Amino acid sequence: MKRQLIVFVKQVPDTKNITGEAMTPQGTVNRSALPAIFNPEDLNALELALQLKDRYDYHVVVATMGPPNASNVLREALYRGADEAYLITDRAFAGADTLATSYALSRLAVTIKDYDLILCGRQAIDGDTAQVGPQLAEKLNLPQISYVEEVVSITKTQIKAQRAIEGGYEILESPLPALLTVIDSNEPRCSSAKRLMKFKKAKTRSELVGSNYTDAERLAEEEEKLKARGLWINEVNAADIGADVERIGLKGSPTKVKKIESVVLKAGQAKQIEPTELGIGNLIHELIQDHTLG
Amino acid sequence: MSDKIGNVWVFIEHEGGKIADVSLELVCKGRELADRLKLKVEAVLLGDKLKGSVQQLFHYGCDNVFLAEDPALEPFTVLPFAKTLVGLLKKHRPNILLFGATMKGRELAPRVASTMMAGLTADCTDLQIDDFDDKVNKQFYKDKLMQIRPAFGGNIIATIVNTWQDPQMVTVREGVMKMSAPDSSRTGKVIEVKPELDDVDTVVKVLKRVTQTKGVDLKKSQIIVAGGYGVGSKENFKLVYQLAEALGGDVGASRAAVDAGWLVHDHQVGQTGVTVRPKLYIACGISGSIQHRAGMTESSKIIAINTDPDAPIFSVAHYGIVGDLNDIVPKMIKAFKAKV
């Protein structure tokens, strides 16, 4: 059997490129107007996984937890070179904080078993917490290497990786299996056109049901066909991965949100300075007078 | 568990015994929270050969310091630190545990929170004590830690509460809590702890460690001239440097300028860079994304220069100059040289 690794990825709203259209007249963000994208650092984790596939012949499993349409990021991972995909989706997971999320992800890893490595992006741009990776490592009782820039080498039993530290880097050695969180330090490859043509037909069970196969027998037949062609995205719910209902979703989340305030831009506070020699000269004079300058 | 509420703890980060500024900031904040709750402030200092670093923690406000020294705790690696910290947490059950939102803090705190089954809030920018009336679950919590942080790319500010058992854990961004003046007459108690580490805790080995001292430390700068994508090129950044040099300041940058490869990350101001609060911040060609503004709005005076009159940077600026920085920056240099 091939050596196997799992990359956990997330579909996120594109918070970094907020345009005027996504702003409400009150100056707050209209979330639904933001496009859903592949979390940037998860693309770096996927790229590292694909490099390890090239170097060590790994079977790359990509997995995500999210709503049914999060299958989009899984297809994108398949276009780029992932071998197999899992979508964890269930209303019972809704409202999960990082602790409940890492527990749910750990249940999938336990279900898949036989992995050498788990790769995650360092953090997702919607929450920016960077917590799920280390928490998942703890749940699975794995050593973690955070902020990985590149993998130096892998043997049967251990990994050497370079990771960033404050003002420099370290080379760490860890036994396998291990969990790595990956930072923005590689250039994710593009989708291959050939793979795109093939895997755009990849489907989850819900998507298959949604595409007019109401007859159970036809459905099973169609599922077998997709599986045979490698176009099946495994869809699992809480029961499938043996998740304890007390530990998932809102119930499994110790943190509660007390209050949310939108950051509102208050315009018109700045004193306008004319871009002329006189205007700028007066400004500099004012700043020298009040001891800001000089 | 006894009814007695645990103390306020601060995880102390250090590099070879030199305590990080953020840890001292958190000791000061911890003091404030502990006074409000009538509790003690206790520091956790892990590493090797650290006795010389302890007094400083008392001077900034700690009542007690838990000191664990072991060769396996130097240099920092996550597993032995997590094991030692979890041991102390289970024994003493502090009410609150603060970490700096540094690279070390952000990899250690979640691992520890996961073992403790405790809530953890990342990158807080403010902490307060208040009651929490959870109407959804019909629960009332007295004197909880309000964990205030930007989320969703900084577009919202969320107040988060940990409703499970203590500790209430947070990481706090560097430079946002005020450090008060140390009082060298203050003393406290050192509680020495023997870490119980097994082979499994030390499986990750540091084979090589390379650090360079920072080219620039903007946290200490009084005047910062920062450039963004609007500067246009690495070549053109010389204008920004010239203005900084003329005013006796340092050069900062937005993420866009760093991502473009015009400056190294040490210069980056904002959510993924440093938080600064200089006397004067001049933003040249920076549109002012919320991530950038998060790192500089507390500057005493802000001048924004941008060709786009609607750029969000103007909303936080004290002085706005709409125009081309290639025209305006030389005028500023000239005006300043003429006045002094």
Please characterize this protein's 3D structure.
- The complex is a heterodimer of chains A (294) and B (340).
- Chain A has one domain (4-247): Rossmann fold.
- Chain A has 8 helices and 13 strands.
- Chain A has helices at residues 40-56, 71-80, 98-112, 132-139, 193-199, 205-210, 216-228, 277-289; strands at 4-9, 11-13, 36-38, 59-65, 84-88, 117-121, 144-154, 158-165, 168-175, 178-182, 234-236, 255-262, 271-272.
- In chain A, the strands form 2 sheets. A 9-stranded mixed β-sheet of chain A has the order 9-8-7-10-6-1-4-5-11, sandwiched between helices. A two-stranded antiparallel ribbon of chain A has the order 2-3.
- In chain A, strand 8 (158-165) and strand 9 (168-175) form a beta hairpin.
- The longest helix of chain A is centred in the first third of the chain and has 17 residues, at 40-56.
- The mean pLDDT of chain A is 92.
- By secondary structure, chain B is an alpha/beta fold.
- Chain B has helices at 21-37, 54-59, 78-92, 103-116, 237-247, 255-259, 290-293, 325-339, and strands spanning 8-12, 14-15, 18-19, 41-47, 64-69, 96-100, 120-124, 126-134, 139-151, 156-162, 168-172, 189-193, 205-211, 223-227, 250-253, 280-284, 301-306, 319-322.
- In chain B, strands 7-11-6-1-4-5-12 form a 7-stranded parallel β-sheet, with helices on both faces. In chain B, strands 15-14-16-17-18 form a 5-stranded parallel β-sheet. In chain B, strands 8-9-10 form a 3-stranded antiparallel β-sheet, covered by helices on one side.
- In chain B, strand 2 and strand 3 form a beta hairpin.
- In chain B, helix 5 (237-247) packs parallel to helix 8.
- The radius of gyration of chain B is 22 Å and the shape is globular.
- The interface between A and B is large, with 78 and 89 residues.
